[in-house]
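Section 5: illustrative case.
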């Protein structure tokens, strides 16, 4: 059994996927890019601003389900340029302070809307 999760507090899906799926005691969050849900525009300001917005979008989906970043057990970070790792990692660390989730960080050739970062997550309910 699975339940589709949708909130207006995060950007809507731009394809045939859900913002998140609740199943088997977990919440599987689709990759979030740095799109402001109010304006539906990519945030400007480089990797710093884009990392914050992607994490805020994940946080909004979690909050809609009564969860916090503390519920996250796994993330995957997709970067256009792995040279941005240190900046991203510093900001990421502000969102996950204790019992940090497992993580993979991957450099990719391209992301939707030409953004610099995308982050997906799995949270325990």
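Designed sequence:
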């Amino acid at each position: 059994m699975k339940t589709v999760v949708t909130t207006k507090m995060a950007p809507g899906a731009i394809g045939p996927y859900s913002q998140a799926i609740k199943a088997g005691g977990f919440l599987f969050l689709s990759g979030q890019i740095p799109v402001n849900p109010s304006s539906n525009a990519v945030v400007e300001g480089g990797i710093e601003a884009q990392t914050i917005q992607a994490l805020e979008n994940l946080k909004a989906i979690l909050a809609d389900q009564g969860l916090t970043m503390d519920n996250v057990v796994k993330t995957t970070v997709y970067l256009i340029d792995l040279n941005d790792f240190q900046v991203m990692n510093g900001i990421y660390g502000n969102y996950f302070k204790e019992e940090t989730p497992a993580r993979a960080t991957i450099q990719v050739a391209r992301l939707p809307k030409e953004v610099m970062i995308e982050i997906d997550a799995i949270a325990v309910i």
